[in-house]
């Protein structure tokens, strides 16, 4: 194993590379979470978060990981036995659905199967809604960007289908690996609960998660009968009015959040999204240049934040990842669930410059070659062509 | 208001002053939580945590605040309608009981009322257990150190009473403001679930919480019927075997945890406990020197980690705190719940040297004087006497 | 030895306690010192430094300690054999004079002896100047604040004497332990070279030093014949015009400097000076309350940044310091040169809040008692009286 | 200009990319430089520095940049009028010679002219020494690695020539851009003074510099008659015995030094040198792949720490650098002195992983193309070939 030197290349699809100023911000001394200084911070954060979600409504911050925010979205809005429609778009949509089932929601009836290479299918949704004349479906769950596959679902089309059907189901969307990376608009797209985490496009360490909440979701929460304590929106929204929280907040990560939001604001969300698209295009150019296949099958659904690469038959993705980790000190994402060993995932989200992406793709190319995967050497050049001209 | 300069005096009973090396540790770059480096960290942490809880059994780490760990202790071990015995020792025991009620547990029948100036009463427990010949009480909840009152319950005596009664109820103990500050022994005292948080004696920012789990609690968790997903011990313990977690762990706080555990180890737990007792004694000497009253009434139950000070009639504790914050840049704890305005709380836990305590008590003395509270000027001298000779 | 916990009390007269934001600033990644980002930083720094020195002229920044800036002040302005008048005010004035001698300057003829308990004597200066009708004295060296004694010389009176004598000697002033702590005005007081360092009132780690330069000093530098390379002002002033330096600058300390200047600006220089005076008054009140003697004899010359405390006969100051370091983890300044063992010095400069000063004086009081020094216990109370009412 | 995101690529030949643990180390609170904790640090540092220089003799640490250490090497060993032999190997050898001249040393007589594309010429030295039968030449100055050209002089051959001539001149070697990057052995190669700085292979921010000193140099220093104060070895070596310094040391940079030495030790000096050679080879492969010329002409003298690239006629190196900085946020070194505009320099020293080098070379390739420089696209692939197989 080559002795390690220099910064590790963390090119998994999250956690992402935390900017140095964010790391320094979280190293500031912890303050009294009931004092005036902290209350002012809370107010600034709540004001700055809205634009990132594309909402003028409330955003609930949890001192917890994204899994908790999934749970929160469900327990605040639904009641035991409620029917939830979900799409089989990948590993994380499956886990969220499994969680819903474990909470006592009905997730079998309205399950839309899929091949893990496409996003949520608006047409399939239209069919299901057409059948549901009694409006038994209480919520539609969509993972905006499937971290396991690199496929981005077209949420506006999902919304349109709901609207055209005049169906009152809540729209719950997981943006864990898209928020702050891929264009997203909670209000404009009529999303009811947006689930997010700190460790991807928000460029923070893990430990914070979020629910952006529509008026309709808030109304639903008043009638929801799933038990909720830690995840209950009510006390949080109430305490937030005074700049406080009903539990001890994760103070130092909140310092980092303020710095990260400032960084996003300085680059400009539009620029952030364009950069991710450009990096994704360069990565796909590399994959195709190597003669390999991108997992995502629909040109409209390529993820801006990660690219899953299909291995040729007979080649193990985890072997490639291991070689790359040991020889080049770079972490890539493994294939998850049914994709284990068959794909590896290149994360290109969060703070990322062109040259770090070039170094990343250089490492992938060398790793593929070292692993004996038959690839053409044209990948890197094709990527640079995109970066240079894009 | 005096312009601020120098480090803020954070003398609330938690979050506590995070040591500089811990702050620097949490500023290290986030790594792949599924990679070998992180797995090794997890294993080191799990090994180092045991001694701090006084257990050789498992400790579950949550990327969440202490409130979540309360919820975890209940939902992993109990079932709807289970009777839970709790003591009215202060604000936090009341909140925990309220949570249990909201979860569908029965908390009225076995509630032991109290005056917020004493700990959990072993004699009252003995009476209740004697009545419960059918062993309907499934759990006894004790807050080891009441952060709202500065009273430390005598857990070993609670254990003895349970043993003498031959009662099988689980013993659930909240050590949020005592772990790493006040002598505590999960295994030796036969505790079934110990609840803890990162931001007090463990000297970390908020954002991590813990459940130490006995074999008996583990067994109970297999039959428990309260719904649990995020808080479920099972997947955590399973994943921990491989050095991983079923959710994205709060990586950077875990870096800090390793550093904090090292600091505790270097000072030596026995020395840490003795230091807290000595600082608590000095603080009580100051309070009495001023002619004021310590809230805690039982000499056996004075907290090592904080001291609640009763105000003379007609004087508002919050006014004193406000003056001290504005003039001397020190945060003290407010009176909570029924004690609002009647007490203020001096935190003397976590990393704390003699001179910072002396500065703290100097600020309290000056603040009381500035607020017009009739105090004798003998407090500080009495405290120094303890520090000098202790 | 008590196990250490909490932050060390660094109460020497410098280096001082570096504010946390400054420490975090110096941890930012080093940039290209020839690139546009660094040039912009240099320009901001040079603009912000002037007001701290009270000058609209140039300030030269050295990547070196204060000793180097002493040397720079001499070699840039003087020529071999030049007569330099200096005052025996303490250890540092003696060292500076020794350096001047080693450089080939004439330092015997115009040496004004002193007792290390007073500042530079304007009357003695008037006499000497009156004798020097040929204007053979080329420079007058004054240490504004003698770090070894806690005596502040009255520079405006020195200036007045020079003016009244119509004497053209350069006025070189060492402000190493006064800049940013004690009122100082390079332009208004007609100082020609002001020597300063980073590690005292500027609240930085050691490693930077400064020369503020008058037009007259600049003119003198063109005729000066002492050899100078690293310390030569010329190339620095030339390169500074482009925002660069003729040597590799100490980039990360400069990051800290920007942050420190911001902190000074936020508090306001007037407030900074007043705070130091108030802390000095509180410290003297403590010393007198203990029944001990302050080294400085002239009420007009008490230092705002440190206080030297005379030990009673038969008591060793270093023993007291050792006890305080081992028992209370506080560093105090030793007696230097002829004062070794006879005084200890309490630094109260740089970032310092009232409660840290109270903790400091508490530690001194306890240390004196533990060392068996006969002191009255009234010191701390007297200091608090000043802090509370001041 | 592309909005910046991600870490800047600092690929100048120093300052280099400071490792994160070093940055965090320098953010630790400053301590008393006269206390026992600091003395212990000093002793550890002095012990750990020796192996990096390849010496068992003393190493003097200056709180100053490398220019100062140049001055120190001369003023400690020589006297006015002493003849100094130097080689014209590039910009820095010229500056050092210029400094020697300004100090009153005789640098004309024994100047060996050169073309800035070769190192110090052992044969030319042999000739000069043969002529100097009176041993008038007192010192031979060699820049081990010319930072302006990327040429490494063969110091062992210089030594051999001196030995074969039986000439007693001191051998003074500048290793500012080679120490900790390119094999170097102070004792074994019979060097008398080795000059080094913190900001290159030692992976620190600028602000520290060094003189490693042979017995012969120490002896010479006792007779040297150039004035020396700040740079005087004597007081430093004397104070070092007690773990202290005669000036205020740059405490926080010394914290970083300890961490950096640990990092070097962990990788192993042999591995460090091999890595630099491998990265240099990959870089030259890229340059040649592009169809460009490496400045260094002698295969034996290619630098391990930087590569200077000659531009084709009619193309401006600074334009390329500007495009690369603006488009790809990477800093490269400019051509210096007579090479201005004609070369750019790629730094590949200090902490540097393969993928960061690949990103660096990607940026250079794209920048050359964007600047319209006629290059073949084969450079990057050739470099990866070296990295993959090396």
From TrEMBL, chains A, B, C, D:
Residues in Aminotransferase class V domain copies: 52-323
BP GO terms, sorted: glycine biosynthetic process, by transamination of glyoxylate
This protein's record includes keyword Transferase: yes
InterPro entries: Aminotrans_V_dom (IPR000192), PyrdxlP-dep_Trfase (IPR015424), PyrdxlP-dep_Trfase_major (IPR015421), PyrdxlP-dep_Trfase_small (IPR015422), SP_NH2Trfase/AEP_transaminase (IPR024169)
Swiss-Prot/TrEMBL keywords: Aminotransferase, Pyridoxal phosphate, Transferase
N6-(pyridoxal phosphate)lysine: modified positions: 200
Binding site for substrate: 345
Highest taxon of the lineage: Bacteria
Xref: Gene3D superfamilies: Aspartate Aminotransferase, domain 1, Type I PLP-dependent aspartate aminotransferase-like (Major domain)
Cofactor(s) required, per the database record: pyridoxal 5'-phosphate
Pfam entry (one): Aminotran_5
GO molecular function: alanine-glyoxylate transaminase activity; L-serine-pyruvate transaminase activity
SUPFAM superfamilies for this protein: PLP-dependent transferases (SSF53383)
Subunit structure of this chain's protein: Heterodimer of a large and a small subunit.
Annotated function: Soluble hydrogenase catalyzes both production and consumption of hydrogen from suitable artificial electron donors or acceptors. This subunit catalyzes the tritium-exchange activity.
Family: Belongs to the class-V pyridoxal-phosphate-dependent aminotransferase family.
Protein name (record): Tritium exchange subunit
Lineage, opening ranks: Bacteria, Bacillati, Actinomycetota, Actinomycetes, Kitasatosporales
């Amino acid at each position: 194993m080559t002795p390690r030197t220099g910064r590790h290349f963390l090119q998994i699809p999250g956690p992402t590379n935390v900017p140095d100023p964010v790391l320094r911000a979280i190293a500031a001394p912890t303050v009294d979470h009931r004092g005036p200084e902290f209350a002012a911070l809370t107010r600034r954060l709540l004001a700055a978060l809205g634009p990132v979600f594309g909402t003028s409504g409330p955003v609930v911050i949890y001192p917890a990981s994204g899994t908790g925010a999934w749970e929160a979205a469900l327990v605040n809005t639904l009641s035991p036995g409620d029917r939830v429609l979900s799409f089989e778009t990948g590993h994380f949509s499956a886990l969220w659905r499994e969680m819903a089932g474990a909470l006592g929601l009905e997730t079998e009836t309205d399950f839309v199967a899929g091949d893990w290479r496409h996003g949520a299918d608006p047409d399939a949704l239209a069919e299901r809604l057409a059948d549901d004349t009694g409006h038994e479906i209480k919520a539609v769950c969509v993972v905006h960007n499937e971290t396991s596959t690199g496929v981005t679902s077209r949420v506006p089309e999902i919304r349109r289908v709901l609207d055209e059907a005049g169906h009152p189901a809540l729209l719950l969307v997981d943006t864990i690996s898209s928020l702050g990376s891929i264009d997203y608009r909670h209000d404009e797209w009529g999303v009811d609960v947006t689930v997010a985490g700190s460790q991807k496009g928000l460029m923070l360490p893990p430990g914070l998660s979020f629910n952006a909440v529509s008026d309709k979701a808030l109304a639903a929460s008043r009638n929801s009968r799933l038990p909720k304590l830690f995840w209950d929106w009510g006390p949080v929204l109430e305490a937030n009015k005074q700049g406080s929280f009903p539990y001890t907040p994760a103070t130092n990560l909140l310092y980092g959040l303020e710095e990260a939001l400032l960084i996003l604001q300085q680059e400009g969300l539009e620029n952030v999204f364009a950069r991710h698209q450009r990096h994704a295009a360069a990565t796909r150019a590399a994959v195709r240049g190597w003669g390999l296949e991108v997992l995502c099958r629909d040109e409209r659904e390529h993820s801006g934040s990660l690219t899953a690469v299909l291995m040729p038959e007979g080649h193990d993705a985890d072997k490639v990842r291991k070689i790359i980790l040991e020889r080049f000190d770079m972490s890539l994402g493994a294939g998850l669930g049914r994709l284990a060993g068959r794909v590896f995932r290149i994360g290109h989200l969060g703070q990322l410059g062109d040259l770090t992406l070039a170094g990343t793709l250089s490492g992938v190319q060398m790793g593929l070659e070292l692993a004996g995967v038959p690839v053409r050497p044209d990948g890197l050049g094709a990527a640079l062509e995109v970066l240079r001209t894009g």
